[in-house]
Amino acid sequence: MLKLLTNAHIFAPEDLGLQHVLVGGGEAGFSTRVPPVPLGSFTTAGVTSVVGVLGTDDTTRDTRALLAQTICSANDIPITLEAAAEHNIANALGAAALSEQLGLSLTSIANGLKTMTQASNPGRSNVFEIVGFKVLLDFAHNPEAMQALFNMAKALPAKRRVLCFGQAGDRTDQQIRELARSAWSIGLEMVIISELSSNARGRDPGEVVGIIRDELLAAGAREDQIQHHQEEHESFAAALDWADSGDLVVILDLGRVSDIQETLTSRTQ
């Protein structure tokens, strides 16, 4: 039996009843412990066939000998955005490892990784080029996914960055503050906050927005760098109107606004 565990860093193998956790690739080597080795080493070594494969019985082969076999460069995988999306490098590593264990050849695995585009994965790390500026769209909704998106946005070159986001009311005040601080740290020029009233989950109107605003101000944002709209589509429209040549618009489509994907596709150069 094969299993692929994601977010392995939040678990200890003994807690899961697992015999071993294989994490590694290229020059990063092989490890039987979590957390995973830094992903930065994968961007230069290429994507290999071992990461996150978990064996719970004797039928799982020892894959350590495969570590030296490079499948392809991370830059050749479209969903990594030329290695800026480190979380998708990790996803590619996991998919490659599992596929190899299921009997696929490295050539087939490489072909799959290199031909998967954002059209195959709408709403996940999608980048659109619109009249000289770029839009990064994702529906990351938990702290880990949002942090991955922030890291990716910081790695993408841009003259200015604007972020459209909100947060559900069932996050703690501390989690919301941490997300606001993380967002501001990527070098934003503007933040447009959406109310997300349908996801208030017991919070009073404006309560979550207030926490985000206060934390952004504490982190160094000016009042004129923060906007607030009730509906996500209003925030998205404001961001697209604000953007100019060379800018990056980061949209967290938490409410899954039905027409944003179509709108961006229609405006793509």
Commentary on this structure:
By secondary structure, this protein is α/β, with parallel strands linked by helices. It folds into 2 domains: 2-116, no CATH class; 126-267, Protein-Tyrosine Phosphatase, Chain A. The protein has helices at 13-16, 40-45, 86-101, 106-115, 143-155, 173-184, 207-219, 232-242, 260-267; strands at residues 2-4, 20-24, 30-31, 47-48, 51-55, 70-72, 126-130, 133-138, 161-165, 190-194, 226-229, 248-252. The strands form 3 sheets. The protein has a 6-stranded mixed β-sheet with strand order 7-8-12-9-10-11, with helices on both faces. Strands 1-5-2-3 form a 4-stranded antiparallel β-sheet. Helix 6 packs across helix 7 (207-219).
**Count of discrete alpha- or pi-helical segments spanning 4 or more residues:** 9
| CATH H-tier superfamily of the largest domain | Mur ligase, C-terminal domain
- Largest sheet properties: 6 strands, mixed
CATH architecture of the largest domain: Alpha-Beta Complex
The averaged pLDDT comes out at 74
- Give the strand content: 15-25%
Number of strands: 12
Task: Provide the gyration radius in Å.
Answer: 20 Å
Approximate helicity band: 25-40%
**CATH fold name of the largest domain:** Protein-Tyrosine Phosphatase, Chain A
The tally of domains stands at 2
Task: Choose one word for the global shape.
Answer: globular
| Poorly predicted residue ranges | 8-68
- Strand adjacency order, main sheet: 7-8-12-9-10-11
Q: Helix/strand-derived class?
A: alpha/beta
Element order: H for helix, E for strand: EHEEHEEEHHEEHEHEHEHEH
